[in-house]
Amino acid sequence: MCEKSFGSQELARGKFVARIVSLAAAVFFLRRPVFKMLRSGRQLFAAALLLGLCTTANADDVLFENVRIFDGKGAGLSEPSNVLVRGNVIAEISTSPVNAEGAERIAGDGRTLMPGLIDAHWHAMLAASTPAEAMGDVSFASIVAGDEATDTLMRGFTTVRDVGGPAFGLKRAIDRGIIPGPRIYPSGAMITVTSGHGDFRQFTDLPRRIGGPLTPMETSGGAMVVDSPDEVRVRVREQFMQGAVLIKLTAGGGVSSPFSPLDVTTFTEPELRAAVEIAENWGTYVAAHAFTTDAIRKAIAAGVKCIEHGFLMDEATARLIAEKGIWLSLQPLPELMRTGLREGSVERAKAEEVWPGIGRTYELAKKYKIKTAWGTDVLFSRALAQQQGAILASLTRWYTPAEALVMATGTNAELLALSGQRNPYPGRLGVVEEGALADLLLVEGNPLENMDLVADPSSNFKIIMKDGVIYKNTLAK
Ligand SMILES: [Zn+2]
Q1: Measured in angstroms, how far is the CA atom of residue 108 from the centroid of ligand 1?
Q2: 48 alpha carbon – ligand 1 mean position (Å)
Q3: Same-domain pairing of 174 and 233
Q4: 318 Cα–ligand 1 center, Å
């Protein structure tokens, strides 16, 4: 378990109350001179005085002093700089001293200040529970997911794109400050077809009567089975009603599903188009799980904007993805995921087919300069979830640390912005620049020289800030 510190939220609330009280007192005592100025026609002076009152009381601002910035875009660190966070926004960045009277000062001592990390393929409700818990004991699974969400934030992941699972309530609890956790961009239930990837029903659940009762898998909100464009429309709209900001569907077979062979293309084109049409009506996009050339090409032809995995595609398809400006969301899946599957099982056999494609696909993504997002796709394993930073560090098989960190910050944030009208956190994420949302990590050392620093967040991330609030600060000790 990672260290958790909840005090800073209460601290911020206390400081806010103090600011209101001091402002009220100042207005009370200065009301006469202000009225005098107003009456004598000196409105400008009065306005300046009131504005001054508002801008100098900066009790809950935070000033990072003497930090070297990795901005989420470039390949190097800045000169020693000062960064002022006002509210939930980065207000000022300067190599000169910053005037921030009353702000909490943090002595950076030359440490690295960088954007909070973003995992573009996460399952907040399914990462730490077993499948049986996730589908059969939803209240227990929700509490496990809440605890894991706090760990996720304490690993420096300030945002996740959740591509399958009933994460709406968890997101609400985090946004309301009930539990600490990352910002969540949820897709809601994975949309699949009978015997598609994500259909975890058993033979005893068959035959399905259209319009009939739902299985626990569906009522839990993990996955929804659709077998016609009309059913697609219903299930997709239901996700949006609950707060989905993108739609995730499974356009081809997958490793962990017992009845979905890898070579099968699952959705028909009219079904894919139905999902894309509704998503576009809602101002956002569809992301499709797809390994094979066939599944990827059908998805792109129907208007899908992001391909998840793609590990069995041919070179011509990589070129097509690049030409069309489609996003490719890749994961450097760790060996433990493959070896964790029982030898001799259908799932293990499929993993043996997929795994050699991981390195090949990263090479293709680089060769054709595809817009590449990074994620982990951890499922049903808290031990693996704790490796989230290590999985990011493993990208150095193909990328420099700077390239990998840009992917997990600035580039992933560009993918998040594809949610358009449905973006739950409008504002710039994944970068350190003036006006951006203040999701920040203060790192001991330089991760651009030593990527392994991100694999050990409990030692190396000294401060974790999300939305301007400090959730971890081990410098204070
Ligand atoms: Zn996944």
Answers
A1: 37
A2: 54
A3: yes
A4: 20
pLDDT tens digit string along 251-282?
999 999 989 999 999 999 999 999 999 999 99
Q: Are residues 266 and 364 in the same domain?
A: yes
Quote the ligand 1 centre to 121 CA distance (angstroms).
Answer: 6
Q: From ligand 1's centre to the CA of 325, what distance in Å?
A: 22
Q: In which domain, by residue range, is 41 found? A: 1-58
Residues with CB under 5 A from ligand 1 (ion): 377
- pLDDT, one tens digit per residue, over 166-204 is 999 999 999 999 999 999 999 999 999 999 999 999 999
Q: What is the C-alpha separation between 469 and 396, in angstroms, rounded?
A: 31
Q: How far is CA 180 from the centre of its chain?
A: 14
Residue 73 to residue 431: CA distance in whole angstroms: 7
Regarding whether 262 and 252 lie in a shared domain, the answer is yes
Ligand 1 midpoint to CA 134 (Å): 15
**How do beta strands 469-473 and 461-466 pair?**
antiparallel
* Tokens found for residue 261: 């062979």
Please say which residue of 19, 34, 58 terminates a domain: 58
Element at 117 (helix H, strand E): strand 117-122
Q: How far is the CA of 160 from the centre of ligand 1 (A)?
A: 12
Q: Average pLDDT for residues 121-128, to the nearest whole number?
A: 97
When pLDDT is cut at 50, 70 and 90, the band that residue 293 belongs to is very high
Distance CA 115, CA 406 (A): 10
Ligand 1 centroid, distance to 308 Cα (angstroms) = 8
What residue ranges in 172-265 does DSSP mark as E strands?
A: 183-186, 190-192, 223-225, 247-250
CA of 164 to the centre of ligand 1 (A): 7
Across 193-206, b (16+ Cβ under 10 Å) vs e yields: bbbbbbbbbeeeee
Could you tell me the distance, in angstroms and rounded to a whole number, from the CA of residue 122 to the centre of ligand 1? Answer: 7
CA of 187 to the centre of ligand 1 (A): 11
- Give the Cα separation of 395 and 168 in Å (integer): 30
* Distance from the alpha carbon of residue 153 to the mean position of ligand 1, in angstroms: 19
Q: What spacing in Å lies between the alpha carbon of 257 and ligand 1's midpoint?
A: 12
- Are residues 270 and 292 both part of a single domain? yes
Q: Find where tokens 């509490």 sit.
A: 143
d(CA 229, CA 297): 19
Task: Report the DSSP pairing between strands 306-312 and 81-86.
Answer: unpaired
Residue 38 has pLDDT above 50, yes or no: no
Least confident of 32-36, 376-380, 429-433, 451-455: 32-36
